[in-house]
Structure formats: structure tokens, C-alpha cells
Queue: 4 jobs
Job 1
Amino acid sequence: MPTYRSVFSFRYGVFDNDGTLVDSIPFCEGIFADVVSRLGVPRAAAMKYYARTTGTPMREQYHGVLEAHGISFDDEDIESLRKAFDRQFLALDMKFFPRARRTLATLARRQKLFLSSAAPDAAVWKRIVGGGAAKHFTLAYGSTAIPKGPRHLEVFAEVIGMDLRDFAERAYFCGDSEADMRIGSLAGLYTIGVSGTVSDARLWRAGARRIIASVDELLADAR
């Protein structure tokens, strides 16, 4: 149900990275399609599948797209796909969306920020360190060791000495995918969807409480 609440009324903020802070989704779709097409998935179908499942840990995406096309695979195949994607993705230089870093800097002066990404840890750190944004986050997680999901939120809560329920009452989750909205809403966080990667209708259905055009729109909340 649509509701408006200023982000400055919260003590904690959780952000997705790709498609929310960093303009990387078009690259992700292309690389994903490149690597799975080697096992027989049509490239156009792979890109459509990625767009539909963006925000999901990539190992799950590989399983899903291969199963959907009746392609047999084993753990070694999944690991090979992951490594092929990681190599290409890590090699790219990607930019933050305009004013995204300024938004993080402003918010970080008033609250603790966390980052939860479905991308590999190395890629997450390359983007936020290279972009000068790492200093704004109390903790940033990719999905190499812990897949993106409820466990990321539990760890964020643990870091500040809270259980997840108390953390959720004081935190928002800002992301561009249905997975972000589902993860945040199921845990009880206030969910803010960023338009562009998927339709607004999909974000609302997945549990968005508010939708913005870009993260810098959040700075208007302070006025």
C-alpha cells in the first residue's frame, strides 16, 4: 500500500547497489546473457529472464534460467558461469547515478547506512571504494559468502546490537528490484522502490511502500 514517510525519520538505511546507486543493470543483463548462452540459452531469452529476476542471488538465477530451458547442469557448471560473469563484471568501470553519492553523504551524517547487493563481493567493493562511497556505509555486503536476503539484514542488526525486529522498525530498504522489495517488506522494513529497472507496478506488487525516480529524490525529504 503506497505510503509516504521521510527517510530522515529513520535511524538506519539499507541500499541496494546495482540499478539503485550504480548505473550497471544494462551491463549485467548483457554479461548474464553472454555467459548462459554458452550452455544453450537464447541470448534474448536470457536478458528477459535477468530483467525479471534482477536482485536475486546470481547462483539462483543461473539455476532458474537453465532449468527453464531444460538444460542439464551440475555445480561445476554453475561455478563456471559465476566465475565467467564475475571476471567480465569486475573488469568494467561503472558510474554512480548523478547525485547518488551526495545523497549517501547527506544521509550518512544523520543515520547509519548499509549496503546489500546480489553482486560478488569484489565487484561491490570496487564500485563503492572506487567511487568514494565506502566511507558512507557501516557495512556493505555482496553475495559471495552470504547470498542477498534476510541474513544480510540480520547481520546489519547484529552489528548495531539489535534483533531484526527492532532494526526493521527503525530502518528503510531502498532498491530497484522486486527482490529488494520482498526482502525488505518480509522483514518489516519500510521499502522504497527506485523506478527504471522494473515497472512501478511490479515494485508495488512486490511490497514497495513508496516509489522514487532516483535516490537523490530522497534529499527533498529534508525540506
Job 2
Amino acid sequence: YGCRIASGFWLTIELVAISTTLGFVIALCVALVRLKGPGWARGMMAAYTTFFRGTPLLGQLFLVYYGFGSFRIFWQDVGLWWFFREPLYCALFTFTINTAAYQAEILRGAIAAVPRGQVEAAKALGLTRFQLLHRVVLPQAMIIALRPLGNELITMIKSSAVASLVTLFDLMGATKLAFARSFDLSIYLVAAVVYLLLVETIRRVWMRLEAHLTRHMKLA
């Protein structure tokens, strides 16, 4: 079952990579709205992050796949049935909005942690709002948020195993299939080792990235 498990491994990588990347883009927008948006928009974004951070990922996945999928006629009328009938798209959608909620709170805290004096100095120099965000705030905020974002990535890798419950043959799904045909419990041990190696590899890469980006701070 090596080929099956290898295929599931790459599907897990695909799910996590796409969802975390799209989630980061959404999270940045949500964080900026929560910090600078009008009151009603801040309230909506706060409700969004509270809901998706306060409910289990498995429940969210079932709600999207089984709940939204039950409205077949409606999705056919609006031309979106092709999306909600596919477990892969439902898993990607669920993982993206889930990790976006966590990343939004990480980015919001990191942006708020940038010293206020630097922002005022940038405004005094005549920088536009975009230049202020692009050249002053975000570079410093990303360094602050780097380690929490790495932890969120690792959490998503481990949480992605729930995709197997909606008929996806990711790493865990392939492992369950192999066990169902062989009844060999050691297959789960192999899957656990693969998850461990993947997480450890990402952890080490993230540590090197953080050390590279913060080397000027150590010299100071």
C-alpha cells in the first residue's frame, strides 16, 4: 500500500498548502478590517473569527459537505453544484475559512504590536496609507507573527486528517483504506511517523526562516 499512502501524502500537502495560502490572504484582509474598518464591519469580522475559532473543524467540515450539499437544487440554480458536490473542494473551502480565522487573530495582534511611534513618524514623512502598511507596519508585524503562523501551519497539517471522513483519500484516508484491507495495525504507526516527519521538517525550516529574518535583531 506504499503507492496509495504516498498519493495520500501528496493530497495532504496539497490541501494544507492551498488552504493556508488562501487563508493568509483572507486573514490579512480580516485583520485590517478589525483594526481599521467601520464598527459594523469590525463586528462582523469578530463574529466570523469567534465562530470558526470556537467550533470544531470536524463540525465545520460536516456542515459544509453534508449541510450545504443537501441544498442541491439551489446550488444547481446558481451554478455552484459542481463545487459543493466535490469533497475535495468542500474540504479546501472549510480548511481555508477555518485557518483564516486563526491567522486573522495572529496578524491582528502582530499589527497592533508595532510601536505606535513608528507609525506616527511614517505619517509625518508623508507616506500614504498603502506605503505605511507595505513598508513600515507589515514587515515588522510579519516577524512578530512568524512563529504563531508556523504553529498554525503545523496544526493544520495534523487537523487535515479529518478530510478522510468525507471520503477523501489523504494520508489518513489512505491509511484507513489500507487497514480495512489488511487489518495490520502497524499501518497506522507508519502514518503517525509520516505525520511526525512532516511536522518536524516544517518546524526546522520555520526555525531557520525565523533565524534568517531576525538576524539583524540579534546583532543589535
Job 3
Amino acid sequence: MLALAVLASTLAASCPTSLANGLDTPTSARQLITVEAKVARTTYAELRTWRKRGPCWVAVAGPYTVRLGRSGLSSNRREGDGTTPTGTYRIGRTMYGNEPNPGVRFAYRRLRCGDWWDEDPRSPTYNSFQHVACGTAPPFAGGSEGMWQQPLPYPFLAVIEYNMRPVVPGRGSGIFLHAQTGGPTIGCISLRKPELRAVLRWLHPAGAPVIAIGTRKQLRG
């Protein structure tokens, strides 16, 4: 096993210099999204996509300009603070949207009345998708969001699995890759709708995709 690890490290060292090839990513990941900001206190960043070829990451598309949370980046996000969390996270197994499936290869749920994201730190289902009967008040409160009521940011979206393994009350919830609305987000990452569609269609469950978020120093740290 040690010999295999040394061989893998040697092969990786021969990869071309790039942001992606300098990251610590899960060995299972074959697809990668990087979101790189110049500084932590900004609401703008650049998104690129990468795929694994042998031991190396090779560029696929981008850079695309994305918007971040209104309070910039944070390595210690708290519920409602307006920051986008730094770190590397899996892409959720289900994508959602108010519009028909745009051609994604993940499971897709067309949003409808009663579809919520629970953002109440006191709730036992905090930071998860929940459906309640249409017209019925949900059993959770806080900043919980009726996703079907947000057609502009959520024509389609991917879930970024921040604070999900495990879920820690108050660490933040509902971090998505969604469509831009003309300004910063409250913690999500937003792309122009055509670019969002292209990225979501490119992602594949078999690629075990992950997203890495931060400044270059944070990403390499």
C-alpha cells in the first residue's frame, strides 16, 4: 500500500501546474469545480471545471464569473451571516428546479408548492429538503425557504453538501449552486443561467464531483 501511495504521489507531481493540480481532493473524484476568489472579502469569484485524466486534473470550461455571499468568504460560517463557506464539498445526489429538467444526469426534482429547505437550527431536519402539504405552514421556522417561490434564482440548482456530514446546528444551511439574480447571494454561489445549465449538464454522478471554494491561499492550505 505504501508503494502505491508513493507511486500516486510521484505521478501527481508530474502533472502540469494549475490551481486544480495543487488541491487536496478525494481520490474518488473525477470531476471538480473550483471557485477562486482574489480576496476573502469579495462577492465575486471565478468558477472553472476540471476532469481527471490519469493522476492529473485537466481544464474543461471557464473561467465564469460567479457571485458569492454578501459578506464574502468564511471558514467558520454561521447561520444568517451572509458568507459563502470555504472548503471542498460533494455535490448533492439530487438537483432541483422550478423549470423542467434541463438535461442533468443526476436525479432531478421539479419543485412544487410545499417544497422547502429547512434552515431552522432548532429543527431535527435542519439543512435538508422537506416537502409539506401545499398551503400548510411547515413545522420549522428560522429563515426556511419555500423553494418553489423562488423561480429567478432556482430555475435549476445543485446542492453543495456543506454542513451535511455531519449536520451541525447553526453552522449554516441551504448552500446551492444556482442562477444569478443581479447581486450577491446570502451564501450560495450563483452563475449566469446559461453557464449554470452547462455546468449542471456536465456533472455526472459517476464522476463523484466535488466543489472547492476559497482564495488561492485557502484552497492550497
Job 4
Amino acid sequence: MRACDGLFSPDGIRARTVKTVIGLLWATGMRPSEPFNLHIRDVDLERNIAFIRETKFSKERIIPLSESAAGQMKAYREWIGGVLGHKRPEEPFFYTTGGKPMVEKAMRYAFKLIRDSIHASPKGYPHVRLYDFRHTRACNTILQWLRTGEDINACLHTLSAYLGHVHPEDTYWY
């Protein structure tokens, strides 16, 4: 997260957004495109949930946000409102330099600039990708179930729905 502070960000927006989005991807396992489809109305910080729309295969879903993730989202929302002024519910949740909506391509580029700070050695890929946060979240969920003695096969439907997979068998490869 400290590496995000070193990104070129004349007004501070890009650095703060990249940091918040990385935390959100890590905490939720969202697809890398999904944070950039969020509008202000999609994030309920009173109930700690996010409504994911415009997804792969048009499969909308509601995901819970941990207290920590919701706290960071709330802090970001308040901060960006102070920098850019009040935004309407239908406007994007995430912004970049100059108050432009943040897009996935810009996020991928920013992550490319800081990814070496993670010191990860992925298998099968030359470097860590934003999508790896999603895969890590899914695998860590399954590992937690194993540690607590849960019936993985019985729980996999829950993980499948959470990830927004069309078919539960799409989740089995984890």
C-alpha cells in the first residue's frame, strides 16, 4: 500500500484510488473490472454491501464488505467528496487525476508500476496480475473451510454465487 503513495498523482486522487481499489480487490475477490462499474448508489456503507452490476455474463450480485473494507470505502468516499465536491448517486465511485472516472486499463497500468513491491513469485505467469487477488481470495476461503472442517462440496455453491460464477462447476478448479 505504501508503494501506491509513490505513484505520480498531482492531485493525490490516483494514488488514493489505486490504494483503495487494491484493498477492495484483496478483501472481496471482485473481478478487476468490477470496482470501475460501481456507482455511488451501488455501495451501501450503512449495511456494508456492494451491488455488483454490469458483470461478466450479466450476473448481478450483492457482496458483503468487511468492517475494514467498508471503513476504507467510507473514508475514500468522504475524501473524494472533499476533493471533487458532492457526487450524485448515479456517478462513479472511483476517480483518478483531474476528477476523471478511473477505468480498469488505468488501474492495470498503475498496478504494473508498483507490483514489484509485493515481492510475489506467481506460478505460470511472469508477474502478479490484478486478477490474482480474486484467485487468492477464493483459495484462501477454501483453505479456511478446510482448517475449520467445513464440507467443501457443500460450501462451494456459496463461493460460486459470491464470485458471480454462472455455473458452480466453474468454481471447482480452485
